[in-house]
Design brief:
The protein is of the alpha+beta class and 76 residues long. It contains 3 helices and 2 strands; from the N terminus they run αββαα. A hairpin with a 2-residue loop joins strand 1 and strand 2.
Length: 76
């Protein structure tokens, strides 16, 4: 999983503003600060509160994902 590098100051400021998500057009994107992505291309959630928030966001905004896909995304 390769990161997208943001160089524009106004976009960086918006992302770093402390809000939980950004909206681009009609789509909303959850913002999570991660320290490391493992070799398999996903972030392993270790904080129970973060896992709860991530699961809620995934379940509410991505109905096309299977339970297996959701579990894989959160590292379970």
């Amino acid at each position: 999983m390769e990161p997208i590098i943001i160089e524009q100051d106004d976009i960086k400021n918006a992302i770093q503003s402390g809000h939980s998500y950004i909206q681009v057009g009609n789509k909303k994107f959850l913002l999570l600060e991660v320290e490391e992505i493992n070799n398999y291309g996903y972030y392993e959630v270790t904080d129970p509160e973060e896992e709860k928030q991530l699961s809620a966001a995934i379940n509410e905004n991505n109905p096309i994902l299977s339970e297996e896909e959701i579990e894989k995304m959160i590292g379970n």
